[in-house]
From TrEMBL:
Boundaries of every Oxidoreductase molybdopterin-binding domain copy: 95-229
Organism of origin: Novosphingobium endophyticum
Pfam family, one: Oxidored_molyb
Superkingdom of source: Bacteria
High-level lineage: Bacteria, Pseudomonadati, Pseudomonadota, Alphaproteobacteria, Sphingomonadales
Name of protein: Molybdopterin oxidoreductase
Length: 255
């Protein structure tokens, strides 16, 4: 089945039917090298499902022009990071802040903000859709998550990427998670810039996730630690995210 799938992708790519071919190919090739991802395709799922995953979920979210950007982009959920440590980092311009990448990786990272900002970046103008019924178009810039995961070298058992955040909402730390299809999607980035300026506190300074094929609550703000896991079991409520654990929203929020 995997072979069929790869063949049909190749045919599509040859025919030029897949946009931004270069980026997409890199992500997909890496994905197909991942044992966990391959086993998902090779296990019980039928060709339709597998095709949808490989083609549908790799498709790019629509991108907009600068003229289409929303004059106002509201902040939602936590508008501030929590705790003394966060406040003092904010006051110092995140000079001694670092992003941790750990869990099922060969090479755990602790990456200072200036190093992160020096990584090759992707810029995209996309529409943010909140489950509460509002949306806004903004410009986001930052490195691809794929780049960081490649630097840290995922172990083959990895199936989920978890984002730990520096805010506590109604007594619970905010966190989110995505699978490897979304983690290696070309538009999945860790944005440190929004609308041409460093990310403001209310939008999740200094770093937030953009996972453009999913609803707003998946876009973790105030990201401080990225953890590679084989399962979501045993992590907080076990459902892979703050709202998921409340039973409010689904784990997969594809749009
Ligand atoms: N850490 C954290 N991330 C979060 C939230 C939050 O409360 N805390 N709210 C989510 C929701 S529901 C939405 S719609 C977006 C809002 O992003 P914005 O404040 O930049 O508009 O962030 C998401 N990410
Ligand atoms: Mo939201």
């Amino acid at each position: 089945m995997t072979e069929k799938l790869i063949l049909s992708r190749r045919r599509l790519i040859r025919a030029g039917a897949v946009g931004a071919g270069g980026l997409l190919l890199t992500g997909c090739d890496r994905l197909f090298e991942n044992a966990a991802f391959r086993s998902v395709l090779e296990s019980g799922e039928d060709l339709h499902m597998a095709t949808q995953r490989a083609l549908g979920r790799d498709a790019l979210a629509r991108e907009f022009s600068v003229h289409e950007m929303s004059p106002v982009f509201r902040a939602n959920g936590s508008r501030e990071g929590s705790g003394e440590a966060y406040k003092s980092q904010l006051a110092q311009g995140f000079a001694d802040w670092s992003l941790k990448v750990d869990g099922l990786v060969e090479r755990p990272l602790a990456m200072p903000l200036d190093v992160l900002k020096a990584l090759p970046l992707r810029s995209q103008i996309t529409r943010h859709d909140c489950v509460e019924g509002w949306s806004a178009i903004g410009q986001w810039r930052g490195p691809r998550l794929a780049h960081l995961l490649d630097l840290a070298r995922l172990k083959p058992q990895t199936r989920y990427i978890v984002f730990h955040c520096a805010d506590v909402l109604h007594g619970h730390p905010y966190y989110e998670s995505i699978d490897l299809v979304d983690a290696f999607h070309p538009q999945t980035i860790l944005a440190w810039e929004m609308n041409g300026r460093p990310l403001e506190e209310k939008h999740g300074a200094p770093l937030r996730l953009r996972v453009e094929r999913q609803l707003g609550y998946k876009h973790a703000k105030f990201v401080t630690r990225i953890e590679a896991r084989s399962s979501l079991e045993g992590l907080y409520g076990g459902r892979g995210g703050y709202w998921e654990d409340q039973g409010a929203y689904a784990w997969y929020a594809g749009i």
